Each structure stands twice: as C-alpha cells, then as structure tokens.
Amino acid sequence: MITKTAQELAIPVGVTLDRFIMHSQSAFPYATGELSQLLRDIALAGKIINREINRAGLVDIAGGNGTENVQGENQQKLDIVANIRFIRALKNGGEVCAILSEEDEDIIHTGNNHGKYVVAMDPLDGSSNIDVNVSIGTVFSIYRRVSPINEPATKEDFLQGGRKQIAAGYILYGSSTMLVYSTGDGVNGFTYDHSLGEFILSHKNICCPTNGSIYSINEGHYNSYPEFVKHYIGTCKEKSLSARYIGSLVGDFHRNLLKGGIYLYPSTKKDPKGKLRLLYECYPLAFIAEKSGGKASDGFGPILDIVPSSFHQRSPIYLGSAAMVEKAIGS
Ligand code: P6P
Hints:
Layout lengths: L16 H10 L7 H22 L8 E5 L5 E3 H17 L2 E6 L6 E2 L7 E9 L10 E9 L22 E7 L3 E6 L5 E6 L4 E6 L10 E3 L10 H12 L3 E2 L5 H11 L2 E4 L12 H14 L3 E3 L19 E4 L1 H8 L2
Parallel strand pairs: 3-5, 11-12, 11-13
Antiparallel strand pairs: 1-2, 3-4, 5-6, 6-7, 7-8, 8-9, 9-10, 13-15, 14-15
Helix pairs in contact: 2-3
Bound molecules: 6-O-phosphono-alpha-D-fructofuranose.
6-O-phosphono-alpha-D-fructofuranose binds next to helix 5.
C-alpha cells in the first residue's frame, strides 16, 4: 500500500538526487532499497561519462573507434567508454544481474545472480555528434527479473514488454547534464552541479504539454516515408510549426518533452522496421512520455504495448505531445 506519492511528499526543488530517492523510497514502505541503489549506480555512471565527454576535445577519446557494433554501425571511442563505464557501475553496484546494451549482441551477465533487476540501455545515443559538440544521451530501462533469483538471467527477463518496465529514463549530456527518470509516479529532472558533484532536482513533476509547435523529423528521408507521414509534415508546414531536428534522439526528445512537440522516426526504405531500437530507446522514452502525459506510438498502437521478440529489434516511433502524436498517426 503506498502511503504518499513522491510528488505528494512535497519534495522541494534543489534537493540532491540522493535525498529525492530517499524521500521517494519512504513513499513505498515495503521498498527494500535495491532500486534506490540501482538508480544511484546509474547516476554515478552518468557523472563519469559526463567527465569523459567534457574531455573529448582534449584527449584522444573522440572520433571513430574503427569498429562496428551489433547494429553494424561505426562505434565511436566514447561509445565503448560509456558502455564499459555503465557495465562497471552496474556490476559494482550489485543490484543488477544482467545488462542488455546496444553495443553488445548478447546479455552481459554481471555475476550478481542475487540481483533482482535487469537493465537495457543505449549507453551513448547520437554519438556521431560527439565530434561536433552536439548533445548526446544515455537511455536506460529497468525491469524486475522474472527468472529465478540466484540463477543467471535469461532472455525472458529482457523480453517482458514495455508495460513491465519498473523505471526508465535518460541522461542528456548537453549545455548542462541532466538525469530525467520515472519509477512510475511522475517524471522528474535533475541537473548536474559540477561544483558539488551532485544531481540536483531542477525539473519537478515534468508534464509534457498536450500540444506544441515543434516537429522533429529527418526530412532528408521524406521521399521514403509512408503517405500519412508526408501528409502530417505538410500540415506542420501549413501551420508554420518549427522544424527542430539535431540528429540526437535524447536531445530532440528532451526539448519536446519540456516545450511540447513531436519526434518522428518512421519506417524508411533503408530501415523498413524503423531505425530506433525497441528495448533500449523506444520503450524507455515511451515510458517517460506516458508518465508525463505524452504519447508514444509505432503508427498502429502504443509503443509500450508492442510484444518484443528479439533484443535489438527496431520500431517506427511517433513520440511526444499527445495531441500531436494522435494527429500524426491519424487517430
Ligand atoms: P538519421 C542517432 O544515430 C539516432 O539513433 C538518434 O539519436 C537520432 O535521432 C537518429 O538516429 C538520427 O538518424 O537517420 O536522421 O541520421
């Protein structure tokens, strides 16, 4: 039984992430602290990656790594660093029994078979923007494992479906570094204060505006979009909406979440199933969108209702302000 929601606890802006997590945990009398610790572990990895990214222009850590990931995409050096840092932080934290990463084909077993949770993540999305100093981000999704405790995690732990996420969020490495997450009770944003080395509550109970004046899509792929998408783009132009697309999902999503807007990545000839990955990009951002009053669809139904079949499957996505998503998909 929940006595009070985190929001009702009237936690003031300005508190540290640690204190916020502690207050929020007190709203769940039977919480045993493992999820709280897991969130701290993610925040720690974010602080470390933030430091690496800020040094990227100064040390030989930017640019391509000369390797490809499971997606066949050129890995950036920071992709590798971010992947290693997150895996290490989650391993050392002890709460996670396994990880699914965009950078690795298979499940990464942490050895913590007593851990109750699994994490699916894109350690550094938009990393091709690193060399040109455009915002990039980490996206993560947390599930309670369904496989037996004290045994290795199984693929079923990761294929539970979007509605089974118990928490999800992202870290945006931009003009400031922000952690935005939800454990199901509202969405809250924390801005990293370098002088304190702490994430500070700066955006309490984020609500995605029902409508907005920003649409985010790569119009370079226009000719290969489905007709309903071409029609929607036309209506955006008729209404003189603002086209904002930085080629970095987390940055585009975060702006639209705060100001109102829609991000669209439809199926294309190159990516007939869409480009973005369901388990560690679409599901977590759909979770954040829905928990803040927005919507996320694959063009046919809610992203969170898609039944997953494989770790790295892709999906079209229409994500952001509810009224704009509904109009885009013609519902
Ligand atoms: P395109 C980055 O590679 C990414 O996954 C998202 O961050 C971004 O929104 C999208 O792909 C950009 O793809 O085809 O427009 O270059």
